[in-house]
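Thread: 30S ribosomal protein THX, structure

OP (GT): Posting the sequence first so everyone is looking at the same thing. Length is 44 residues per the record. Can we get the structure tokens written out before standup tomorrow? I want them in the notebook alongside the other entries.
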Amino acid sequence: MGKGDKKTKRGKIYRGTFGVRRPKIKKKPSIEHKIGIGNKAQPK
């Protein structure tokens, strides 16, 4: 259980991989993007 272990968080960090123990953090959309600041109306 340590750096060489594929199934532990420390092992995932050491190898630079992701999985159940170390999921990728997804970027949340910004508040401005959600409410549409700066989005102009599209001409028809």
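GT: Both are above now. Quick notes for whoever picks this up: The helical segments are 9-15, 31-35. The mean pLDDT is 81.
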